[in-house]
Every structure is written in C-alpha cells, then in structure tokens.
Amino acid sequence: MSDDVIRIFDTTLRDGEQSPGCSMNTEEKLQVAEALTELGVDIIEAGFPIASPGDFEAVRQIARRFGDRTTICGLARCRIEDIERAWEALRDAEHARIHVFLATSSIHRKYKLKMDKDQIVRTAVEMVKRARDLCPDIEFSPEDAARTERDFLCEVIEKTIDAGAGTINIPDTVGYAVPPQFGELFAYLRNNVPNIDRAILSAHCHDDLGLAVANSLAAIENGARQVECTINGLGERAGNAALEEIVMALRTRRDYYGCTTNIRTQKLYPTSRLVSSITGMMVQRNKAIVGQNAFAHEAGIHQHGILQERSTYEIMRPEDVGFHGTNLVLGKHSGRHAFRDRVRKLGYELDEQTLNRVFQDFIELADKKKEVYDADIVALIENRRGLDHPETWELVGFHTCAGSPHVVPTATLELKRRGDDTIRRDAAIGDGPIDAVFWALERITGVSARLEDYQVRSVSRGKDAQGEVTLRIVVDGRSYHGHGVSTDVIEASARAYLQALNKAIADVASGRFSDADRKTSAPSL
Ligand code: KIV
Ligand code: ZN
User: Fold this and answer.
1) What's the per-residue H, E or C state across 298-359?
2) Per-residue pLDDT tens over the stretch 311-347
3) What are the two backbone dihedrals, phi and then psi, of residue 507, each rounded to the nearest 5 degrees?
4) Contact status, residue 209 vs residue 170, Cβ threshold 8 Å
5) What is the maximum span of the chain, computed from C-alpha positions, in angstroms?
6) Which helix or strand (DSSP H or E) is residue 453 part of?
7) 309 alpha carbon, distance to own chain's centre
8) Which of 100, 101, 104, 234 to mutate to test ligand 1, by most ligand atoms within 8 A of the CB atom?
9) How far apart are CA 243 and CA 257, in angstroms?
10) 435 three-class SS
11) In this structure, are residues 86 and 79 in contact, taking their beta carbons and an 8 Å threshold?
C-alpha cells in the first residue's frame, strides 16, 4: 500500500502574521508566498481579507500570482461580509479556498459569542452554504475545538460537511491539548461523525505548552490528512506548529508514520531565513531543523563518531533541509560560474540580474574579508532582496565618532532621495554611535520612530565576520522591521534603521497608513 500524502497548509501569512510585531507589507507577503510556492506547500492561507485593505490587497495579489500553482486560502468569520470579501480577494485564483470559522467551545459560546448551541449550528451551516455558493473549496474550523464537548463537536462537523465543507479543521486554539488526548479526539471524530469520509480532517495546533508539533503528529497518526503550520513556528503567543519540524519528522520517521508530504525539503532553510529576515523574528540557535546549531557537533565523542560514520550522531543530513553550515567556499578569485553553482546549492533560484548584483556584493565582501562562508552568501542574497526594492531614501555615506571617557558620540549621515540627486546631510549626537546614527536618520527623513527591538549577531565566524542587524521600530502605532548586513555593525544598523523608516514612509505615501488599516482596528477573531 502506498504512503498517504499529508497536505501542508501554511498559515505563516495569516496566523503567523498575527504574531505581535510580525506584520508584513504586501511586497513582503508576495516574497513569502513565492518562497512557500517553491517550497511546495499545498495550501497558502494568505490572510484575512476583511481585516484591512492591506490584508485584502495582499490576498488578491497572491491569488493572482500563485493561484495556478497552489491553493490560496482566505479566512472569514461566519459573517456574510467576511465571506464575500474573502471571495472578492480570491476569485482570480485557479485554486481558491475560503476558510470559515466559528467558535464552538462552551467558554467561547458563553463569553465571546453569547450564542447557544442551536444558534452556533445554524450560523455555521448557513455560512458554509453561502461560502460554498461562491467557491467550491470550503474549509470549516470549529474554533477552540479541543475544548468543545465531543457530542456537540460531532454535530457541528456532521452538519457543516452536509452544508458543503470539504475540509474540517480541528484547532487547538489555546494550545491546551496533549498528544494522546488530541490524537484520540481525531479517532473519536472518525468513529462518531457519520459522514466524516466526505471531508479531509485537519489539525491546527498552538504551542502554549510546547506541544504543537507533537499534537499535530498525534492527529496524523489518527487520521488527519492536512496539518496547519507556519515557518519557524511563527504565530500568536507561543506560536503555531512549526512546518519544518512536522515535515522532517514525517520524512525522517517515515518508517513509523508511513506518510509523505509534497515539500521540497532542501528549501526549508532558505525559507526559514527569508521569513526570519522579513518579520524580524530571529530563529533561536538551537531550534530544531533550522537553528544555526541544529547540525553542529561540539562534543569530541560526537565529532569522532561523525567522522567515522555520519549516522552515529546524525539522523538527518543538513543538506536535505538546505543547510550548508559555514564551510569556507569561495574567494575573490572564484568565478561567476562557481558562485552561481553555490547559490543554487544553497537553495536559491535568482534571476540573472539579481545574481549579477549579488555577485558584485560578493566581490566587494571578498575584498574586505579573508574568508567568505556560505552563511555570508545567504546574508548577501537576503540583503540584496531588501536593497532591490525601490526605497525613498538611500544611504550614501556616514561618519561616526565615539570613545570613552568624555567623548560625545556623534554621527554625520549622507542620504539621497529617490528621483533626486541632491545629497542631504545632517548630524546628531546620541548615547552611542548607533544611537547618534538613528537620530541623524530621523532628522534627514523627517520621520520620528520608537526603537522597540534591536538585535545584532555575527553571520559567520571570525573577527572579520559580517554583522547582521534586525530591528523593529514603531511609527504612529505601527511596527516596521529593518534588516541590514555589513562587516561594520554601525553600517548594518544604519541600513536596517533606514529600511524600516523607508517602509513607514511607503505606507504613508500609498495611503495604507490609515486607521482602517491598523492591526489594532482589525476585527478580532
Ligand atoms: O487558532 C485558531 O483557532 C485559528 C482559527 C481561525 C482556525 O487560528
Ligand atoms: Zn490559530
């Protein structure tokens, strides 16, 4: 008998994006959607179209651009206006899905919805029918299913399947479930919902107890054939189940689960890096599958074992997830062909123009730095993605002065505005050179921001390693991320801060920066 294929439903752009400080603009969402399509996910939940004009636009563009290669899904509450708005955003996709949800647990019925069981069933059935009139592919989620009375859950599921839902998703909305119990719930549903064979069962787990992946796997063992997850486990509170962990658990323990996925696993690491650099959510070093240390062997005994035979201490090959460590690869005399080949091996498909630009960046870096590692090349590719998007302000040059004691840190900055060759200069003082740079950037751009988060880490090893800065600023109540890489951490900081300021400026210019589009005013789930 052939192995079952588990559908991977990625919700990085919807549930993941709901995570505080992780909102993305349309351009960034398109980049993530492209990476998810390349990764091979079966369904992309692209957003919640009623939530804001920005969400709507992102779903619409993703549906148009990628809806012929993968299913694009939009979320809707059990309200006609939500469903119609979702369909408006999705209708250009060849493969579209509307995901309708309504809470079913007694706590949500009583305190949030103030609806009794009959009202819940009637509303869910009516809205699934409405959605089905518009779109052939409907998913229904009884929100907080893991805490819903079982007989009532069976009733809701049976009736929503009759109403036209082809996928029934079981969310553990608050991350309360534990694996044996969650697995048993799936077995129970399969045995007690008479028409369950007409729908695909799906699991949607949150990680409040650190059990989201374990719960998802328990659901698969008991008949779930779709899992909802996010890259790097991004998501509200402690996050959602991590896509890369579920996929690699299924692949590595295929002997046990007897299931496969359509994921091109060599793209996992590049996709993780992309999501991390766009959202500003750094991946912890020891994170399974995509953490920097996930394949590092420090202990002498382990290193010895690995040298004799890799399988002594390695259950997965790093290259199978697209991780190529920090091997010394290329020097400044390496040709374009060798460079292109390495970029491909690292899991990136770049068009000719971008490849040429990254190659130039690489040559410049190789001039500054003795040894260029794979991690440096990955950082250059990600940095170039940011640089190639037209920005209002461009960094031309900077000078800083700092010291101790009794030296007032100062920074002088030179910026150029797009479409205008005049160089603008200004200077500022700060409590350190980076602070002074940030003040000077604000003076020139005229945008004042609050720095919420700032992190710097070295991309590879050695004193001459590139520094990677990830930061988050808040402008008028809205968060923006910035990312910059350079062998000089002050320059990396300046680039990251300027990138974030440019995003805020672009929002104002496009009119996206209206009250209607603020996450705080979006409808609550
Ligand atoms: O966690 C949850 O219940 C959700 C639903 C909208 C599916 O995200
Ligand atoms: Zn969720």
Assistant:
1) CCHHHHHHHHHCHHHCCCCCHHHHCCCCCCEEECCCCCHHHHHHHHHHCCCCCCHHHHHHHH
2) 887 889 999 999 876 565 677 777 888 888 888 877 7
3) -65, -45
4) no
5) 79
6) strand 450-458
7) 35
8) 101
9) 16
10) helix
11) no
Q: Tokens standing for 218?
A: 């328990």
Ligand 1 center–CA 141 separation, angstroms: 7
The residues with which 228 forms a beta bridge, in sequence order, are 9, 204
Ligand 1 contact, 141 CB (< 6 A): yes
Summarize pLDDT for 435-444 with one digit per residue, the tens.
999 999 999 9
- Which class for 193: exposed (0-12), middle (13-18), buried (19 or more C-beta within 10 A)? buried
Spacing, Cα 173 to ligand 2 middle (Å): 5
Q: Whose CA is nearest to atom 2 of ligand 1?
A: 173
In degrees and rounded to multiples of 5, residue 54 shows phi and psi of -65, -45
Structural tokens at position 94: 């060849």
Query: Which residues make Cβ contacts (< 8 Å) with residue 47, sequence separation at least 6?
Result: 13, 14, 17, 29, 55, 56, 58, 59, 62, 74, 75, 89
To which residue do tokens 């320059």 refer?
491
**Token couple for 24:** 């993305």
Buried b (16+ CB within 10 A) or exposed e, 396-422: eebebebeeeeeebbbbbbbbeeeeee
Upstream peptide bond of 136 is cis (omega within 30 degrees of 0): no
**H or E stretch covering 268:** helix 268-279
> With b meaning 16 or more CB within 10 Å and e meaning fewer, what string describes 233-266?
bbbbeebbbbbbbbbbbbbeeeeebebebebebb
Residue 88 sits at the vertex; the CA angle it makes with 65 and 134, to the nearest 5 degrees, is: 110
Length of the chain in residues, anyone? 525
388 pLDDT band (50/70/90 cuts)?
low
